[in-house]
Amino acid sequence: MAVRIETQSDGIAVVTVDNPPVNALSQAIRQGLLDAAVALDADPRVRGVVLLCAGRTFIAGADISEFGKPPQAPRLPDVIARIERAAKPWLAAIHGAALGGGLEVALGCRWRVAEETARFGLPEVTLGIIPGAGGTVRLPRLVDAKEAIELAAAGRQIGAAAARDIGLIDAMLGQNLREKAVAFLIDALSKPWPTILCDRPASEAPADFWDEQKARIGKRARGEIAPLRALESLRRATEQGFDEAMAFERRTFLDLRDSEQARALRYVFFAERSAHKPPEYDDAAPRQIETSAVIGGGTMGAGIAAALRNAGLPVILVERDQAALERGLANVGAIFEAATKRGGLTPEAAQARMAGVSGTTDYARLVDVDLVIEAVFEDIEVKRAVFRSLSGACRPDAVLATNTSYLDPNAIAEAVTNPERMIGLHFFSPANVMKLLEIVPAAETADEIVATGLALARRLAKIPVVAGICDGFIGNRILKVTRAQAERLILSGATPREVDGAMRSFGMPMGPFEAQDLGGLDIAAFQRKAARARGETPFAPVADRLVDMGRLGQKSGGGWYDYSPGDRTPQPSPAVAAIVADAAALSLSRQWSAAEIADAIVLPMINEASKILGEGIAKRAADIDLVKIHGYGFPRWRGGPMHYAEARGLEEVAAILERLSADGLAEPPGAFLRAAAKRGGFDLSQQ
Ligand code: 3H9
């Protein structure tokens, strides 16, 4: 039985939801809860009800996989209303996560208690919807409107202590949740019961409060619809009666559930989960990793070391001399210090993390480590030398990984004894923050080493994508196209500011020129130099000139934009305009709308991504979407470039590419994209 009832001799009934893996509110669970409320009200032995869940979590929400299908009775709002008005009052005893519909069920209970490690949230907005079973209506009847907005419109999740502090739960209980919850309920039954939320007034907010919140949430949403709709629903909940507000919330929920954004966000949700288990490696068992080392303590190496420590792995940081080692250790320390300042880590936790990082300049110290990640300068000879040293110093079965972003892991593997244990693990900067991990097997890499990379990604809370070998792998190969297109646009009449603005409007956190100024123009210039040495002809006439002039971005006081000292606000640069005018003398010049600019950048990205898929560099279209969302800020609510292309229609994408190509502004659509357009789409299934 998915919903079990046990009636104890003390008059407390314990209702257990048991629907692995996350106790989602499938039709059977909704029906089971409704039946339980009816049956327990009719049972004279019962005084009160404890609702808890089996397995690793409380109810994690509605069953997202049911969203695309016709709804089945009973509706969740009706189930919750029945629980709320039950004659025998309910208490929710929460462990794991109470999310979405799970928290809404808990709000229908008269009391909520939780284990210290429990988490709470209404993450519906992250799925392109708003709560649909009273979340936005009951929450502001329990907690302050500001807190309700954080949870329901900003989608923030909070821990048990914070939940207790804002009044979302009545008590935080330790281990043995069931016994403690029953004891809590028996005590609570003997005191006056709290008023059910549907009968309480909503928390009031000053007149200008909602306008301020609208501006704040709207700014953060960057094109996403759901957060502002959730805010509107919360506002109605404070201004209208319960039933009217419930009806508004439900209408909005149903309206959004079938929206393009919700479809895209659901697709990403399931793609993220599938990413951890690519079927090609189903039969490979990961190696046990208990100890680790990072070679190189620069920005990337320090970020990787911090990520490993955050996941509980001890780290040995290796540098070539004592001074570099001290700088590297200081870089790692600075990451934990910053986390402490932001409130993400207590000073004690930061100290403990740092205590787990030891430093050395001697490879002999690595004799026993399970995993080494190299993050030194992007130079093949430097990297080969590191791997020769590692081959001599480490156990023959230690996993050896390179964090290269452009070099060929096969060329590095030549320096490794037992090359089947060597792999590319491409982190994104800052490595302790960015979610993406490109896993790049070399020709001889064993499947179990790829599986080890996948398991490591899970442990580091990252999204893994297995990529084949080509220049830039999946992400940076597409990035090169993005940059080249941005440059073509400014040579065709658009300004850097217009291009950046258009891409922000599309939903990117930053435009391509601002991003280059932030990261520095020198790294890409270095890659172009290497590409030219290989006989390639990368397109970057303006960027090349800027680098020659020493305009490397913010760090040199100017790049695509000018910057006043101490001010990071990009200012249009007359120097750049002059270079563009000079370089553009032969090109066409025209006015560009924001939508045309976005097309001229995003559709060529899709074209390149299709080639990547056609060549087998990416195994699934969904992998490319995850790379662009988690490594490059592609708007999640658009589902990534491949999902976006399908939603737009591949025929249309191909036709616009043809037109751009006729004007010399992009490559024509490739064979794989044309074939997919004919078939009616990429295969966006995740297997
Ligand atoms: C909602 O509630 C709407 C209501 O307001 C209105 C109703 C009227 N449904 O993440 P994991 C699967 S909207 C279906 O790897 P973890 C997941 O696909 C919902 N399936 O585990 C995976 O399957 P598989 C609001 C779900 O321990 C497996 O469970 N709620 C759902 O790392 C394990 O997932 C949310 O948005 C679901 N709701 O993390 C919560 N959730 O093994 C979404 C998970 O086949 N869920 N699955 O790949 C989560 O945040 C995490 O899953 C959770 C566990 C934190 C619970």
Automatic annotation (TrEMBL):
<dbReference type="Pfam" id="PF02737">
    <property type="entry name" value="3HCDH_N"/>
</dbReference>
<dbReference type="GO" id="GO:0006635">
    <property type="term" value="P:fatty acid beta-oxidation"/>
</dbReference>
<dbReference type="Pfam" id="PF00378">
    <property type="entry name" value="ECH_1"/>
</dbReference>
<keyword id="KW-0520">NAD</keyword>
<dbReference type="GO" id="GO:0003857">
    <property type="term" value="F:(3S)-3-hydroxyacyl-CoA dehydrogenase (NAD+) activity"/>
</dbReference>
<dbReference type="InterPro" id="IPR001753">
    <property type="entry name" value="Enoyl-CoA_hydra/iso"/>
</dbReference>
<dbReference type="GO" id="GO:0070403">
    <property type="term" value="F:NAD+ binding"/>
</dbReference>
<keyword id="KW-0443">Lipid metabolism</keyword>
<dbReference type="InterPro" id="IPR008927">
    <property type="entry name" value="6-PGluconate_DH-like_C_sf"/>
</dbReference>
<comment type="pathway">
    <text>Lipid metabolism; fatty acid beta-oxidation.</text>
</comment>
<dbReference type="GO" id="GO:0004300">
    <property type="term" value="F:enoyl-CoA hydratase activity"/>
</dbReference>
<dbReference type="InterPro" id="IPR036291">
    <property type="entry name" value="NAD(P)-bd_dom_sf"/>
</dbReference>
<protein>
    <submittedName>
        <fullName>3-hydroxyacyl-CoA dehydrogenase</fullName>
    </submittedName>
</protein>
<keyword id="KW-0442">Lipid degradation</keyword>
<keyword id="KW-0456">Lyase</keyword>
<feature type="domain" description="3-hydroxyacyl-CoA dehydrogenase NAD binding">
    <location>
        <begin position="293"/>
        <end position="467"/>
    </location>
</feature>
<keyword id="KW-0560">Oxidoreductase</keyword>
<keyword id="KW-0276">Fatty acid metabolism</keyword>
<keyword id="KW-0576">Peroxisome</keyword>
<dbReference type="GO" id="GO:0016853">
    <property type="term" value="F:isomerase activity"/>
</dbReference>
<dbReference type="InterPro" id="IPR029045">
    <property type="entry name" value="ClpP/crotonase-like_dom_sf"/>
</dbReference>
<keyword id="KW-0413">Isomerase</keyword>
<dbReference type="InterPro" id="IPR006176">
    <property type="entry name" value="3-OHacyl-CoA_DH_NAD-bd"/>
</dbReference>
<feature type="domain" description="3-hydroxyacyl-CoA dehydrogenase C-terminal">
    <location>
        <begin position="472"/>
        <end position="563"/>
    </location>
</feature>
<keyword id="KW-0511">Multifunctional enzyme</keyword>
<dbReference type="InterPro" id="IPR006108">
    <property type="entry name" value="3HC_DH_C"/>
</dbReference>
<dbReference type="Pfam" id="PF00725">
    <property type="entry name" value="3HCDH"/>
</dbReference>
